[in-house]
Design goal:
The structure holds two protein chains of two kinds. Chain A is of the alpha+beta class. Chain A has two domains: 43 residues, no CATH class; 73 residues, no CATH class. Chain A is 30% helix and 17% strand. In chain A, a hairpin with a 5-residue loop joins strand 2 and strand 3. Chain B is mainly alpha-helical. In chain B, helix 10 runs parallel beside helix 12. Classes of the chains: A alpha+beta, B mainly alpha. Chains A and B meet through helix 1 and strand 3 of A and helix 1, helix 11 and helix 14 of B.
Chain lengths: 121, 417
């Protein structure tokens, strides 16, 4: 079974870390994840940019683009895509197509770091 | 994270919101700060035992208010009841809920706190010092070091600034839309000043003053989270990130200035650049260009060029032309002239800045740029004079040393070989 492990924290706290502190957290985590990677059991991993870089697309008859991250508490995180785009506009256009004729929300957030992973294809 | 370091992190992160809410309750900066201190002390006592509360900021606001009100009651046994406005903020679970849900009050609290530090009576350096002390929570010692002054002098400066604010009538009602936009602009300008204070650092002190840049970026991000749809705040944040990304390449090992063209671009911070680009793109969607967005766009063009020779000067000249329209200023024209020199040669650039000689007579960079252009045209005598004026206006030893190099080259060229 494939599992996603989703990381949550207070952005103010994490962005307050010095580079050395941040690196130390990543290094500590890598002690665990490197073993999984070596065993071919590590799928793609990503670190997201701050929520200030996000835009949110509220689907519906007339989809609306809002600045900022997803903040509703009545909807739950159900899935995600990682895709490459030349621009934010292109990303929004694709998200509109993906969510066409649906309700719900698609948040678009650039990645800060991406690890492709070692899962066999 | 081990030990109690996590508590310090939570306190630091919650500080602007908590002090902002306490300022709204008490309408007094000193009292708000003391209440925050008291709440922090209680957090240090309780949190290690019970773990962090679900909403650290709401906890600190409630405890800070209650502690202060208890103090007022104890101190006034035989005195009349405290003023109505002090008691009216008595807390219970409902208030926590209200704090938690009312995002707009939170937003206005933090903006008010920042705006309070930008009181127009205060000189810019005092505004910045006050914001660092009150909003960022830096110690007086840290601020003094960053400003290269003694601790006692800085203490006095901050105390004086606070007194002036206490004497002034601060607006505590929720601001209207126009008022809010005004405040936002004032606060953005203060954050930019704070960043520049750190950015114009010279060699030996660079690592200390980088703190100022980091704090400015933190405040800009905070402001952007509060006002997520403001393109100029996106632009400001992007501008700071794109400029700060170059910091590793700006000075050489000896602390001397390295010009943009000669910097090692491989050591620029690519993560900051990527975040800056993302924000510029977000801002441009609004089609409401402003000075911060445009300057960020220019910084973005520089960051995009892998080598200095790849710089898209046509694009930079084009953005400067828009900036000249949006915010006409001699400094903008001077900066545009640098792009024009690349595109159409030093003579065209020199023509462009000729009329700036009077308004920018006291501006270091004007004489530096003039000198460089004159030298390119072989007008060495005039170049020497311009560099001489620049040296006299240099702010840091690194700036002076940089100009000195030009003069040395000119002197060498003048020697018959």
């Amino acid at each position: 079974m494939l599992y996603a492990i989703l990381c949550y924290h207070d952005e103010d706290v994490v962005s307050g870390w010095t580079k050395a502190e941040d690196d130390a957290v990543l290094a500590k985590r890598r002690l665990v994840t490197d073993k999984l990677a070596a065993a071919g059991r590590h799928g793609p991993a990503a670190r997201l940019m701050p929520t200030t870089t996000a835009v949110t697309l509220r689907m519906g008859a007339e989809p609306v683009v809002l600045d900022g991250p997803f903040t509703e508490t009545k909807e739950q995180l159900l899935g995600f895509y990682v895709m490459e785009f030349a621009s934010l506009d292109e990303a929004i256009a694709t998200a509109r197509e993906i969510g066409r004729d649906e309700t719900g929300t698609l948040e678009i957030r650039p990645l800060r770091l991406f690890v492709p992973g070692t899962l066999p294809t | 994270m081990t030990g109690t370091a996590w508590i310090g992190e939570l306190l630091q992160a919650a500080r602007p919101q908590v002090v902002g809410a306490l300022l709204r309750s008490f309408r007094d900066l000193d009292q708000a700060e003391e209440a925050f201190q008291e709440a922090s002390l209680r957090a240090l006592k309780h949190w290690p035992l019970n773990g962090p509360p679900r909403d650290a900021a709401a906890w600190l606001i409630m405890v800070g208010r209650n502690a202060t009100i208890d103090g007022v009651r104890r101190g006034s046994k035989l005195q009349p009841l405290p003023a109505e406005e002090v008691i009216s903020d008595l807390d219970d679970a409902e208030t926590i809920l209200a704090e938690h849900l009312d995002g707009s009050a939170y937003r206005d609290d933090v903006l008010r706190l920042l705006f309070t530090c930008c009181h127009p009576d205060l000189p810019a350096t005092q505004q910045i010092a006050l914001a660092l002390r009150i909003v960022s929570g830096l110690s007086v010692k840290e601020i003094a070091r960053a400003f290269l002054v003694g601790e006692a002098a800085m203490e006095q400066r901050i105390t004086r600034a606070k007194r002036r604010i206490a004497d002034a009538q601060l607006p505590f009602e929720a601001p209207g839309a126009v008022e809010r936009a005004d405040r936002l602009g004032t606060v953005a300008a203060m954050i930019y000043l704070l960043f520049n204070e750190g950015y114009s650092a010279s060699g030996g002190t660079a690592h200390i003053r980088a703190t100022l840049c980091d704090e400015a970026i933190r405040l800009a991000r905070l402001l952007l989270r509060l006002f997520p749809a403001e393109p100029e705040i996106m632009g400001l944040t992007a501008l700071l990130l794109l400029q700060h990304a170059r910091t590793p390449g700006r000075l050489d090992d000896a602390g001397a200035i390295v010009l943009l063209e000669e910097q090692d671009r491989a050591i620029w911070d690519r993560e900051m650049i990527a975040e800056g680009h993302a924000l510029v793109q977000k801002a441009l969607r609004h089609r409401r260009p402003g000075p911060y967005q445009l300057q960020a766009a220019i910084a973005g063009v520089h960051a995009h060029a892998i080598r200095a020779a790849d710089t898209d000067w046509v694009e930079i000249d084009r953005i400067y032309a828009v900036l000249e329209r949006v915010q006409p200023s001699p400094v903008v024209t001077l900066n545009r002239a640098v792009a024009v020199a690349k595109l159409r040669g030093p003579a065209a650039a020199l023509d462009m800045i000729e009329s700036l000689a009077v308004p920018l007579a006291g501006y270091f960079h004007f004489h530096g740029v003039s000198g460089a252009l004159l030298r390119q045209l072989g007008r060495d005598g005039e170049a020497r004079a311009a560099f001489g004026r620049a040296i006299a206006l240099a702010h840091t030893p690194a700036e002076a040393a940089h100009i000195r190099q030009h003069l040395d080259v000119l002197a060498r060229d003048a020697q018959p070989s």
